[in-house]
Amino acid sequence: MALSARSLCAQRSCARATRASSGAVACRVQCSSGARQAEPAPLAMVERRELLLGALAAIGFAAVAPPAAQAGLLEGGVEWWKGRRRANSAKLIAPIKVAQQRLQAASAMLADGSGSMLDVLQLVRASSLNCYMFEALPSDSLETRASLFTQSRQLSDPCTFRIIIKNVVDFATDDDRERGAALLSSIILSYQKLDGELEAAVESGLGLGLGGAPGGVEAAGKAAKQLGATLQLAYEMEGFVKE
C-alpha cells in the first residue's frame, strides 16, 4: 500500500536528521498535501540582513544620542581625517617642492647670468604646475602644449596647486577654506604677473642673454623682484599644507 504524504514527509525528515552531524542545524521540513515549503534563506542573505540591521542600529543610536555624544562622534571623524591628511602631506608637498626648486633655479639664472631670459621664462612656466594660460613657445614640449590645450578647452582642471588646496581644506574650518582660496588666487596672479615681466624682458632684447638695452635691464630687475615674491608664496603654500 502506498505511503501517505504525511508519512513520506516524516521519513524524509528522519533521514535528514540522521545524516546531519552533531553540530549541524537540521532544517525543519513542513509538508502540506505532499509539497515542501521553501528552505531557509542562504547564509549570505542572513549576514547581509544582520549587517543592515547593525547599520540601522548605529544610525538610530546617533540619532537618539545626547548632543555631547553626537559632537564627540563628529569630532572623532574629523580628527581621523586630519591624521590621514598629515600622513599623506608628503605627497601633497612634493609638487610644491618641485615648483620651489624650479623658481630657485630661475632666480639663480637671473642673478649670475648663467642662462638666457628665455630659459628663465620656460623654467618659471614649468614651475607653475599648469595653473595659468600663456602662449606656447616654439621650443615648448608636447606635454606643455597638451596642458595648454586642456586648459583652453576646459576639459579638466590641470592646476596642481588647486588640486592640493582642495585636498587640504576638506573638513577644514571656514577660515582655513578662505585662507586656502586666497593663497591659491595670490600664487596664480603672481605667476601671471611674473610671466608678463619676463616676456617684457625677452621682448626688450634679453631673450638671447642678460645683456642688452637699458630698458631690458630694468625689465629684468622687475622680473627678479616678482620672481622672489612668487617663490615666497610657494613657501607659504608649503607651510599651509603642513599645518
Question: Can you characterise this structure?
Answer:
- The protein is an all-alpha fold and 243 residues long.
- It has a domain of 154 residues: A middle domain of Talin 1 (Up-down Bundle), CATH 1.20.1420.
- It is built from 9 helices and 2 strands; from the N terminus they run H-E-E-H-H-H-H-H-H-H-H.
- Helix 4 runs antiparallel to helix 7.
- The longest helix is centred in the C-terminal third of the chain and has 33 residues.
- 19% of the residues are buried.
Topology, element by element:
Blueprint: H1 5-19, E1 31-32, E2 35-36, H2 43-64, H3 67-87, H4 89-112, H5 117-127, H6 142-153, H7 160-168, H8 174-206, H9 214-242
Antiparallel strand pairs: 1-2
**Class derived from helix and strand content:** mainly alpha
Runs in which pLDDT lies below 50 for 5 or more consecutive residues are 1-48
Strand order of the largest sheet: 1-2
Mean pLDDT: 75
Give the termini separation. 89 Å
Any idea what the CATH architecture of one domain is? Up-down Bundle
Q: In this structure, how is the largest beta sheet organized? A: 2 strands, antiparallel
Binned, the helix content reads: over 70%
CATH fold-level name of one domain: A middle domain of Talin 1
- Give the SSE string: HEEHHHHHHHH
Beta-strand segment tally: 2
* Portion in strands: under 5%
Radius of gyration: 35 Å
